[in-house]
């Protein structure tokens, strides 16, 4: 009986100590976790707005974001306005997007020039697509091909051609071989994001 009581007390104390230790560690690291998440978000938004810090450090990324990106509401949509280094000339205007991928949500940001004529930048910041297949949407070759493509919305919007095919048309990009479902999802998500952005750009800053 005494051994059983001792075991119960020992396990209770051990569990309580472990809980206190884990809680303390969580509290101690919470600021760092928040800082890292802010950095990751700022870095992704800058990429989506076609802004690229000359330095790779956290300080340069956060300083550029604070200096050159502003949020506005247009037609009830939140838009991100990126400025040139002078702080006055608009470089790009973007919207965040989120949609259903093959395995889960795909999130990111896309931007155009201030008039909404052509794509300036795009980033797929969060996704759980298959590594080596659909996961390639995060690779530089895939996102780079969107730059300069028409965002005007003629026809059905951006068209995805088989990987390796000539995609020289103003609304043509290459899909990812072996990732048909992911490519179709991305096409749907991106074209919807461009429609949202065009709707936002049709209203002045601050419009509801």
Spell out the blueprint of helices and strands.
Elements: H1 2-48, H2 58-68, E1 69-74, E2 77-83, E3 90-100, E4 105-112, E5 119-126, H3 140-144, E6 159-161, E7 172-174, H4 180-201
- The count of β-strands is 7
In sequence order, what are the helices and strands, one letter per element?
A: HHEEEEEHEEH
Quaternary arrangement of the chains shown?
A: single chain
Main sheet strand line-up:
1-2-3-4-5
**Average of pLDDT:** 89
Written account of the structure:
The chain has helices spanning 2-48, 58-68, 140-144, 180-201, and strands spanning 69-74, 77-83, 90-100, 105-112, 119-126, 159-161, 172-174. The longest helix has 47 residues, at 2-48. Strand 4 (105-112) and strand 5 form a beta hairpin. The protein has four helices and seven strands. Helices cover 41% and strands 22% of the residues. Strands 1-2-3-4-5 form a five-stranded antiparallel beta sheet, sandwiched between helices. A two-stranded parallel sheet has the order 6-7. Helix 1 (2-48) crosses helix 2 (58-68). The protein is α+β, with helices and mostly antiparallel strands.
Features:
4 helices; two-stranded parallel ribbon; single chain; 208 residues; alpha+beta; five-stranded antiparallel sheet
Structure, briefly:
The protein has 208 residues and is of the alpha+beta class. It contains four helices and seven strands. A five-stranded antiparallel beta sheet has the order 1-2-3-4-5, sandwiched between helices. A two-stranded parallel sheet has the order 6-7.
């Amino acid at each position: 009986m005494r051994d059983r009581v001792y075991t119960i007390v020992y396990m209770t104390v051990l569990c309580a100590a472990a809980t206190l230790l884990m809680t303390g560690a969580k509290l101690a690291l919470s600021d760092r976790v928040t800082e890292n998440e802010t950095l990751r978000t700022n870095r992704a938004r800058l990429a989506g707005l076609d802004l690229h810090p000359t330095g790779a450090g956290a300080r340069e990324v956060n300083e550029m974001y604070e200096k050159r990106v502003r949020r506005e509401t247009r037609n009830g949509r939140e838009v991100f306005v990126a400025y040139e280094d002078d702080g006055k000339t608009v470089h790009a205007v973007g919207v965040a997007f989120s949609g259903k991928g093959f395995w889960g949500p795909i999130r990111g940001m896309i931007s155009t020039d201030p008039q909404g004529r052509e794509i300036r930048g795009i980033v797929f910041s969060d996704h759980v697509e298959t590594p080596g297949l659909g996961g390639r949407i995060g690779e530089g070759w895939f996102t780079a091909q969107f730059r300069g493509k028409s965002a005007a919305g003629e026809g059905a919007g951006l068209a995805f051609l088989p990987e390796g095919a000539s995609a020289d048309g103003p609304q043509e990009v290459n899909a990812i071989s072996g990732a048909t479902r992911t490519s179709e999802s991305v096409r749907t998500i991106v074209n919807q994001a461009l429609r949202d952005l065009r709707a936002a750009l049709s209203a002045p800053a601050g419009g509801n």
